[in-house]
Task: structure prediction
Amino acid sequence: MSNRQFSERPAKLAWFFSTKGRAGVARFMAVTFAMVFMIGLVAWGFANLDAATYPLLGALGGAALAKLFAEAGRRCHDQGRDPIVGAVVLVGILIAAFCILSLLVAGAMAIGIGAIGALAFAVTFFRPGQPDANSHGEPPLGPLHASRPTGVRVDRRGLAWAGVSILGCAAIGLAIQTTTDHIRADRESRQASATGSLAMVRMMDG
Result:
């Protein structure tokens, strides 16, 4: 591998997680479905895999969230909007989805929250992009392409945001692993103590 190829790796990684540039509706939805699927796999892993995998699962979930928010920023750039708008809408939708899936809200309230979230998502991200160049670059060349702004090689903010998201979610996974191991060890200790006490009682009765 040449030095040039090695030096281009950070730039490619930074571009993957960058909010800079512009993206159309088709690309945004394709990335959204892919990242939601990955987050679903992470949730399945937390429910079914060994606790030792939790930090890795958390890191994967953090990477998926970082990419999702980055692509939302590009979608807003394509419309000439501030990416903060997309971030706020996504945070609200994720919180609403968590409340509904964890059964914190149910019935008519859950339906109402879901409908509001879907409407906010559609209004924010399905709005057509600007047909001409704006301050974030040229329009995307195709439905699944993202245009790059001129003069930007490495988006350090995007790379930093991805790092914070990945490491933060990995830390959450580690905390859950530690708590799970603690609870398991305490339960096994209680079971061993109860078994020993029962054996002693039987010996005394015998």
Observations:
- The chain has six helices and two strands.
- Strands lie at 22-23, 146-147.
- Residues 156-205 form the longest helix (50 residues).
